[in-house]
Structures are given as structure tokens and as C-alpha cells.
Design goal:
The protein is of the alpha+beta class and 366 residues long. The protein has 3 domains: 2-84 and 283-365, no CATH class; 133-192, ATP-grasp fold, A domain (Dna Ligase, domain 1, 2-Layer Sandwich), CATH 3.30.1490.20; 197-278, ATP-grasp fold, B domain (D-amino Acid Aminotransferase, Chain A, domain 1). Helices cover 25% and strands 27% of the residues. Strands 13-12-9-10-11-14-16-15 form an 8-stranded antiparallel β-sheet, sandwiched between helices. Strands 3-2-1-4 form a 4-stranded parallel β-sheet, with no helix packed on it. β12 (256-266) and β13 form a beta hairpin. α2 (95-103) packs across α3.
Amino acid sequence: MKIFNHDITLSTHDQEAGTHLYSGRALGLTNPGDKIQMHPDLTADWDAIVAHYEQVGLAHTHDVIWDVDITQMSQHPDHDICVYFFGDAVNRHDTHRQFFRQWNPRWCQVVDFINSKNNFIYLAEELNIPVPKTLRFEHVAAARACDTLPLPCYVKPAVSDHGFGIRRCPDEQALDQAFEHLVDDEPLQIQAEVPTSTFLNLQYQVTPAGVTPLLASEQILDGCVHGGNRYPTDYDPWEKIAPFAEWMGEHGMKGIFAVDVAVVPEAGGIQYLAIECNPRFNGSSYPTLVAQKLRIPRWSSATYKTPPRALREVDLTDLAFEPATGKGVILINWGTIQAGKLCVLLAGSPEEQAEVGQELQARLQA
């Protein structure tokens, strides 16, 4: 049995409306007998999501703790913990970090280290894993003083989740504007733009047998922000990233983590460039694990804007996933409808995914 707490507010500086509602997307990962902590605002859509999951055949727990306080987990020592992020990347005080350290100090330490994009680049270089040209700085003033910055490039806070603070800079003017939006005394990196439109998400899972590949999918990006994923993919770079995955296991990582990889076609073949590591669940983990539970072989995930602000206002009856046909919609990040967006899994062939997705979009905008 597990207790799930997938609140993201301890791992992202993104204050966009709706971040407190993300705890609901872990519901589809649970099994009967588990417990899950969710934000109390999600009670408004509980009946609707239960009915939807019953229709698509997705078993889940009904044992909900309507409170996302992480310390609640210690009241259930007979349950294994499952959290979105094993630590606190947001608050400068040590209250939550101490809590995680008590559970598993090595896991907490490796997450804290590799959650820095600068540390990831340093480690990848040490392990001879190709990465884009990346300059690392301790503060904005050092970056401003550098006269060898690559353009176009991406300016990234060293610690960033959900795409927060990442900006593409085609020229020096954009670079100056990007610097203005960063915290002066916090580390950052400047990474040369990679000449490709194909990026992969390689997910790994730590099991008693060690670190094992979980799933490779292609990313669907909205600028710098994750917009969805597509599975399967024709690319298979597991061997290239294996030294890093092994390092993570050796240094105490648990649960799920993922590496973003750029696919760069070259005259002699394909070059794979490691971009960053998410030492946690990520946006693609939720549709991945739901698809595995329901044995869905082809799927994509997508996020749609929604004028409706409640699940009961959206009729998915004839669009919902049918196990017999392997086609249809499954709600993944359902609670965020209250903030005007829904993340869904679209099952079926690419043509069926497109058809169902277009109909869902039209229905949401009607």
C-alpha cells in the first residue's frame, strides 16, 4: 500500500493560477487500498472524475485525505510514500527538507543536487555524455560580464520547474530582457539553442532490481513549456544516457526520474544531446503510468484550454476511452479545469488520436 502526495507547490516557483490543483493528477496512478492527499478544492469535481474513471475501467483509491500538508504522510507509517518531488526546491528554510531527510537522506541529497541544471551539465560532462554548449554562472552579474555567450540561446535559472523563468533569446536585446526577469543572486545557465525540433523524454524507474528504463516518448512543446508527449517513438538512446542513470541509482535515487534529450540529425547519423534531468515525476509520467495500467500501446497527451470550470459541464460519454476499441479520452490532470485547462490522454492510432482530440477541443470551446 502507498500514500500519494503529488502536490507541486514545494518544487516550482510558478505561481500561475491552478498549480495547487495538480495534486489530483496522481489519482489515476493509485490502486484500491492506497491513500492519496489532494487539495480540498478538488472535492468539487470528485464525483465527476470517479464516474469518468469507472467508465474507462481505471481502478483507483477512494481513500482521500483532503489536505496536501506533507507532514500528514508520517501519520501512516504502514504505507510506502509516493511524492512528486522528494524535497523542497522553493522555500529557503529547512522545515520541509528536514522532513524528507528523516525519511531518506541519500534520496533527498541526490534530488537536491541533480535538481540544479548546472549540476546536471557538470555531471554529464564528467560521464562523457554529450550536451549542448552550456555556460554556467553563479549569478546574473557574472553572465552579463561574459562576452562569449552563444546566440540564439536559452537562459535558464539553475533550479526551475514547469518551465518557470526559461526564455529563448535570439539576440542580445532579448538576452538583456531575460536577465531582468531573473533573481540577481541565484545561479543560472545559458544554453546554446539546439538545431532540432525533436526532443525526447526518457523516464527511468528505480526498482529493487536497480534502475530500469520505463518509457521513451517524444515531447510536444509549447515554447519552453511541456505541452504533452507522444508514444511510441522511433528513437532509442537509452545506451547513451545509461551512465547517468546508473549514477543516479548508485547515489540513492528512488521512484521515477527523467532525462530530456535532443535528437539532432547529422550527416553521419543521429546525435543525442542530454538537456536536463527531472529528478522526480514529470508531466509525461502520469499518462505513461495510466497507459500501462490500461495496456494502451499508442497514445499522446495534450493540454487544452477550457471555458468550462467544472467537469460536470463537459460531456465525455461518447469520447471516453473504450477498452474494447483501444480508442478515446482519459482525463489525467482533471482538477485544473477549475483554472481553465485540462490535460488528457488520447488513445488509439495517430489518426484516431487526432480525430478524438479535435472533437474534444471543439466540445470544450462550444
